[in-house]
Specification:
Elements lengths: L2 H4 E11 L4 E6 L13 E3 L4 E2 L1 E7 L2 E6 L5 H6 L4 E5 L13 H4 L3 E4 L4 E10 L4 E7 L2 E7 L7 E3 L4 E4 L7
Parallel strand pairs: 8-13
Antiparallel strand pairs: 1-2, 1-7, 2-6, 3-4, 3-7, 5-6, 8-9, 9-10, 10-11, 12-13
Length: 168
């Protein structure tokens, strides 16, 4: 299985929660509580986990993971990313994208000049931003809106941005 194309990161363990081996689980799903629906999830090192959400806690969920019995085991998992096979995820409408599909795409301006590649997709609460890594230049963040990013062509591996004046 090719992790880049066959698995999609749905969450990460933010550390231990409580003293009985429960974890603080950060969900990257549009509906954060849906993360458990895609279990079992797999980690980068190949371990698989069943998930039972216990309750919402400050931007995450308290959760029980299969095989994790102690606080120390839970804390040792801090930073572990959890993935689901792409074929378990729903198909998206034409104007929605999984972040994993955008990372690495080439970015071009409206005139056809290559600007760089998408390094990350970030959401700080005011909507998504594309982090564009540019060779020999500082990274630039652009709002991921239809006005600024009018074209996303996954099949050709490229996006077109119409940069606001003065952004670069």
């Amino acid at each position: 299985m090719n992790r880049k194309t066959d698995l999609v990161c749905l969450g990460a363990i933010a550390g231990a929660w409580g003293v009985k081996g429960d974890v603080r689980l950060k969900s990257f799903c549009a509906d954060p509580g849906a993360i458990a629906d895609y279990a079992p999830l797999v980690s980068d090192d190949g371990r698989t986990f069943e998930i039972r959400l216990l309750k919402p806690v400050s931007g995450a969920y308290a959760a029980k993971l299969s095989g994790v019995q102690t606080r120390e085991e839970a804390q040792a998992l801090k930073g572990t990313r959890l993935y689901a096979p792409r074929d378990r995820l729903p198909d998206l409408p034409d104007d929605e994208f999984y972040h994993a599909d955008l990372i690495g795409l080439a970015v071009f301006d409206a005139g056809g000049a290559e600007l760089g590649r998408i390094k990350a997709v970030m959401d700080h609460g005011a909507g998504d931003f594309l982090e564009i890594a540019r060779p020999g230049a500082p990274v630039v963040l652009v709002p991921f809106t239809r006005d600024v990013v009018p074209t996303v062509d996954l099949s050709s591996g490229r996006v077109v941005v119409d940069l606001p004046e003065g952004l670069v």
